[in-house]
Structures are given as C-alpha cells and as structure tokens.
Amino acid sequence: MSFSARLLLTSLVTLAVGLGALVVAGNVLLDRRVGAEVSNELRVNAQAQLATLAITSSGVSVREAPNDEALDRHGWVIDGDRVIERATNVSAALDRTAVALGRARAFGDHDADGVGDIHLRVVPIVEPGRAGPVGAVVVALSTAPLENLQKQVLVGSLIIAALVLLAGALALRTAIGRALEPVVQMTSRAEDWGAHDLDRRFDLGPPRDELTGLATTLDGLLDRIAASRRHEQRFAGEMAHELRTPIAGLRGRAELALGAAGADAITEKDDALRAVVAQSARLTNTVDTLLAVARRELDPTEGAVDLVALAREVEQVDVLEPAGDLPLAEGEPDVLRRALAPLVANAQRHARERVTLELSAGEGRVRITVRDDGPGLDPGLGERAFDPGVRGSGETSPGAGLGLPLARRLARSCGGDVLVGDGPGGCFVLELPAVRSVGER
Question: Is the sign of the CA dihedral 153, 154, 155, 160 positive or negative?
Fold first, then answer.
C-alpha cells in the first residue's frame, strides 16, 4: 500500500471513529432527554389527576374538571383495592397491568411490559391525618411517537455520517493528492535524471510548506554534491596533469639511456639515473602534497601555524616582518609549507633580482604576500592563472603546471585562499584565518 493510500485510510478511520462517537453520543443524549420528557409528562398528568380527587374519611371521590375527558383516557383512580375510575380506550392487558400496579402501591415509573410503547406512573393518594396512603393514581403515556422520532433521528444521523464520510474521503483524497504532488513531481523528475545530470534540480519554487521546503533543501544538497563532484573531477585532472610531466621525463631519459652507444653510453646512463632520481623526488613530493590535500579535506581539524617562522624557512628571499606580533594562522604547518612553496618557486622563476615575503594581518586574517621584481602576471590571464596547465605569454608567464592550482587548493583546505595581488612585478597573496583567542570564541 502506498504512503498516500495509508494516509487516506488512516484519516478515514479517524474520521469514521469520530463520526461514530458523535452519533452514539448524540443518540444517547436524545434518549436521556426523551426519558426525562416522558417522566415529566407523567408527573404533570398525575398531579392533574390528583387535583380532581376529593379525599374524605368515607373514601375517595372524583370531581368533574375541565380536562376530565383527557384525564379519563389515560388515568386510573384506586380507592383501597376498589377501582373508582378507569382509563377508556385502552387494551385489557394495559388495564390489568395498571390496576395491579395501583393496588400493589408500586409507586414510581414503570414500563407496561407486553402492551406496547406505554409508560405508567403510580402516585399515592394520601389522606391528611392518616399514616399511609388510602389509594393510588395511575397515569399512562404512549411513547410510540417519541420512539419513532428517536429511530428517525438515528437513521438520519447514520445517513448523514455516511455522507460526511464519503465527502470526507473525496476531500481527503484531493487534499492528500495536492499535498503530495511535489513528491510525485520530485520522483518523476529524479527518475529521468542520469548519473551525470549534475545541473538538474527539482525547482519547485520558494518553500510553501514542509514538502516544498524539503525540495528546496534537496536542491541545496544536490548543489553541494555537484560542487563536490566537480571538485573531485578537477582534483583528479590536476593530479593526472602533475604526475604526467615527471613520468614522461622518466620515460624519456630512460629511452635516451637505452639508445646511447659507444663511449657516451656510460655518461648518458649516469645522467639518466640522476634524472630518474630527481624526477622520482619530484613524484614523491607531488604525491605527498596530494596526500596532504586529501587528509586535510577529510579531516579539517583546526591547527595553529606561525607564519613568521614558516617564512624564515624559505631560502633566497627577503622577509619583511610586521612591527608587532603576528597572530597565529589556522592550518597545519606541512600543508601551508607546501602551499607557499609553489608561490615562492613561481616568484623566483620570474624575478630579475629579488623575491620578498611580506607578513601582515587584519580583519581576522593573516597574510603572506609573495612579491618579485619580474614582469608580473599577464593581464589577460587573471584568475585563469589558477587553472591547471595554463601558461602566460612570453616572459610574463606566471608559471605552468599544477603549482598555483595546488597552492590555492591547499590554502582553501585550511580555510584560506591564494589571490592575485596588486603592485609592480609579480604578486600573489596567501591568506589564512587568524587563530581566535579563547575570549573571541
């Protein structure tokens, strides 16, 4: 059974139970009200019958009254065991029952069993000055009209309940269908999506209720998944690009060594082995860098790095330290060391004479600005300098391969970034979040 069917069934059962409770409660209240009305009517008739009696020491007699005919049709007057007035137009069985109850002094309300829908009330006749009753008045009242009304009300309430249940089923089905329509749309759209449809979204508009809110949340989740997938695709491309160069170098030097002959063979093989060692070291460094990126992205645990000490480790550069104390930066020293290395290498490759590291802090960030006095970044590149394999034109190239892209990826894994800076010559800025003090946290 589908969710909508279960929801509809549950709603209908709840509605049916509620309607049944209302029908039962309403008819119980009606029955009690009818019983109270019958008892009140019998009491009034009995009082009217008593009002027509004359009680003396010699016995009980009936005086004529304006409504005497109506009283005579439904009343009995018993003096001792003698019936002095009997109801007219009643069955013999009802007459026997009423007389028996009156003679037995069975005071109160009674059902006339076996004689139809008749209720009887027995009221004592009391003579002043005597200890016990001298007789009894019995009045009868037919409840057939009231019981017929009760049956009609019961049948009518059942019919109304059935109609309400039917109308409720139609209304609930429509309401549930409209409420679950976003889910149906989401399901049908998701079934059409392929594994590579990274840009497909549910697009149900602004949240109007819980389900459209869920669609908006899922769209946001799909955005993050798509971004993560593109991130991994780019990472795989960067890794392949970075590893291809040293592997191609290893193969080329090995082929040259194998093809060498004569007196130069030993020298060529020695050069090839040295090249293999150098390229192997480059491969090892690249793999270590990629592993550092992966570890940082899987477990971005906050650390603290002294950028002043990190800058002092770099050789053949001038370090310009700030006048005051520089806050610690968030990140891991090894990761940031690997992020700074390609920026310095790029600056040293294009500098004419000098490479400078400037340390600064502000607005909750700590920065290392890498400057060189070379020709600077090709204006036509801009942010494309951080794309893998992008080269500048002529002598204005900021570098090639994976250096700048990896530097930015490593910085971002620590919550920072690598940006193109302003100024003469080449300029890149490695900025990181400053470690907050306990009070700031």
Answer: positive
